[in-house]
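Key result, reporting period 2: structure in, sequence out.
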């Protein structure tokens, strides 16, 4: 099962990398690569859609919003090369889901253990705000990834945008609509949703999200994943 899942995810990743369906996002991701901040000048940017990353046998998936302009859009791996990723992978390492606490670049030796990291939108959007049409165009990639993760039992949603996408993955959205919150939990037939504040700087710098808060979410995820 894991072998077929892995091959399926590899084929899907190749499709994701070649996507040009959203002209605004294509133009933005390439513009950021052409005029990077001084600290990244001289680096070769990925500047393409970013596929998910992790263990094909994952029982846990982590879903974010979209690649960062100078994070994943630069490195080509989800939550890699920016401070949000520093927080996320450190937390995954503490919880036993990652082989090391840093995610610097593709090929840096990082392996995920029973976990898979992805996002709703695959290209860096201006101001981190994809349009509803861009979201809807991109969500089928997430649907296909989740279908290929045959052992999936828990989805941690980093922020309300990811929570709403994960709700749609489950089919008909319950009424009243379940609200996102840090530590929110929604059981389901195939997988349980867990809410976690996004490890963006606006949350981590202000203390709205702390390492202990992330650890609590991932401890619960491990409990539910079995």
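The corresponding designed sequence is given below.
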């Amino acid at each position: 099962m894991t072998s077929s899942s892995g091959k399926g995810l590899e084929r899907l990743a190749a499709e994701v990398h070649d996507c040009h369906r959203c002209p605004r996002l294509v133009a933005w991701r390439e513009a950021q690569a052409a005029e990077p901040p001084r600290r990244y000048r001289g680096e070769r940017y990925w500047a393409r859609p970013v596929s998910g990353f992790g263990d094909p046998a994952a029982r846990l998936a982590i879903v974010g919003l979209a690649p960062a302009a100078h994070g994943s859009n630069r490195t080509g791996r989800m939550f890699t090369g920016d401070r949000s990723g520093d927080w996320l992978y450190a937390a995954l390492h503490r919880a036993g889901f990652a082989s090391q606490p840093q995610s610097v670049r593709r090929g840096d030796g990082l392996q995920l253990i029973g976990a898979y990291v992805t996002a709703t939108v695959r290209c860096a959007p201006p101001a981190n705000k994809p349009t509803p049409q861009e979201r809807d165009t991109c969500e089928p990639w997430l649907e296909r990834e989740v279908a290929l993760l045959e052992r999936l039992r828990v989805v941690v949603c980093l922020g309300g945008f990811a929570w709403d996408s994960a709700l749609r993955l489950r089919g008909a959205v319950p009424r009243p609509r379940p609200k996102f919150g840090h530590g929110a939990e929604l059981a389901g037939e195939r997988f349980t949703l867990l809410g976690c504040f996004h490890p963006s700087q606006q949350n981590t710098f202000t203390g709205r999200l702390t390492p202990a808060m992330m650890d609590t979410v991932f401890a619960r995820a491990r409990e539910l994943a079995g």
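The chain has a mean pLDDT of 96. Residues 2-225 form a domain with the Uracil-DNA Glycosylase, subunit E fold (CATH 3.40.470.10). This case is discussed further under Risks and Mitigation.
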